[in-house]
Amino acid sequence: MLKKILLLTFALMLSGCGAVNSYQHLAPEEAAEIIAKDKTILLLDVRTLEEYEKKHIPNAVLLPIDEIKKGNFSPLTDKNQKILIYCWTGRRAENAAAILVENGYTNVFEFGGIVDWTGAVEGTEVAK
Predict the structure, then answer these.
(1) Helix-strand-coil percent breakdown of the chain, rounded to 5?
(2) pTM of this prediction?
(3) pLDDT tens-digit map of 99-113
C-alpha cells in the first residue's frame, strides 16, 4: 500500500499536478484596492507608447507586450515582486501575465483593460 502511495505521489509530481504556475485575474476594483494599499507593487502597462501617452494609470510602468514577447523584462528585476498588469481591453495583459509566469515570475496578476478602469488616469487625452 505504501509503495502505491509513493508511486502515485511521484507520478503527480512528474505531471505537475498540484504545482501552481499561473497568474491570477483580478477585477478592476480589486486592483484599485491593492494599488491604494500596497506601495511595493509594480503596476505594468503593456500597451504601446502612443496608447500609454494618451491615457494611463498614475505610476504605471510601460513595457509593451512586443518587448515582453522578445524577452525584455528590464524593469522587472524582482521575480517575486507583486506585478499588476493591464492593457486596453485585457487580451495583451493576459498574454503578458502568461509570459511572465513562464519566465519565473511568481506574483503576477492581471486586471484587464483601462477601458474598464474607473480610478484616476493621466495622459494627453485626460488633459483635454
Answers:
(1) 40, 15, 45
(2) 0.83
(3) 999 999 999 999 999
